[in-house]
């Protein structure tokens, strides 16, 4: 019988260590490994190429995403960079309008210089199909997307990608493999910012690429070694430790986020709530189809635009105003001046990223404390 998710999370890649019986994968703080003769060693020669803690994490994440290979990087963006290097000058990429600002910046400010071109479209099959060209080699989706939580039907897009031999890449950072497994829906590659839910404690930055295509894995692994944007042993250990509790944390993140989305929806001073778990969210049915639950991220717009948002941030107490997401503690962010500031204003506005938009990474504290704090900050922000 195949093991279930939490069992895989706790055990995959992590047998007790042979030499000492250590139950946790040790953190080998060494950059290099002794060789018995030139080229003859015990499996590791230099820590950029690999080290035992990273090897364990790569196996673990591959198992969680049902991938053949896992390849870890020093950040989510380093993982994305490695995947984009599968392409060359003249190649065209279709991505979605609502996208992490750092990914957008990497696409436009780094890869366009090297001859790649990018189109940013609505996250639906029709828009993607309309944008395909002879040069399209990759479709890059983020589902749910950052920060408006749009959904893309992975299976439907994968079908189009397969027929045209286009690589479908899914950024699964928001959902995590606990809620959604894109490779099982037909995607070719999954990328993660493991900084977020996989690490889960806001104490490490890292990234990962997961795939079952040997030719993709080989090239990404080559890039990992040749460029060297790799995570150290302690980083990998922290992610391995975080992943052990991923399932229980995600259950709580989802429950709290659902409660907070309902609270915001009922609030008279809130103009709009974005949460895939709400029945009138445009991606609700797709989310029900491809996700186990609706995730821990909620975005909303207060009445009062930018000034209202500023007043709200000045009054919030329990939630921390900070970049990033996916940790046990609740974080709050102003996408247009923080995570998505690198997207030109005109484009941001066209995509619905207004000055009054607030993004919540709902933590695993008690939901009643979180809603009370939102309640008092909204009351302060909207005082007439
Ligand atoms: C959806 C998404 N993908 C990728 C990244 C980049 O990851 P990192 O910050 O680990 O480089 C982020 C960061 O916020 C993100 O939100």
Secondary-structure map with pairings?
Blueprint: H1 5-11, H2 52-64, E1 69-73, H3 76-84, E2 92-96, H4 101-111, E3 117-121, H5 125-131, E4 136-142, H6 154-164, E5 167-171, H7 176-179, E6 189-193, E7 207-211, H8 214-227, H9 233-243, H10 246-266, E8 270-274, H11 284-290, E9 297-302, H12 305-315, E10 320-321, E11 331-333, H13 345-350, E12 357-361, H14 367-381
Pyridoxal-5'-phosphate binds at residues 75-77, 100, 102-103, 142, 146, 171, 173-174, 193, 195, 205, 207.
The overall number of domains is 2
Spans of at least 5 consecutive residues whose pLDDT stays below 50 are: none
The H/E string reads HHEHEHEHEHEHEEHHHEHEHEEHEH
What is the CATH topology of the largest domain?
Aspartate Aminotransferase, domain 2
- Identify the CATH class of the largest domain: Alpha Beta
**Whole-number radius of gyration?**
21 Å
CATH architecture of the largest domain: 3-Layer(aba) Sandwich
- Main-sheet strand order equals 1-7-6-5-4-2-3
Largest sheet: 7 strands, mixed
The end-to-end distance, rounded to whole angstroms, is 62 Å
Helical residues, percent = 25-40%
Shape: globular
The CATH homology group name of the largest domain: Type I PLP-dependent aspartate aminotransferase-like (Major domain)
Which small compounds were modeled alongside the protein? pyridoxal-5'-phosphate
Number of helices: 14
SS strand fraction: 15-25%
Helices and strands: which structural class?
Answer: alpha/beta
Say how many strands there are.
Answer: 12
| Mean pLDDT over the residues | 96
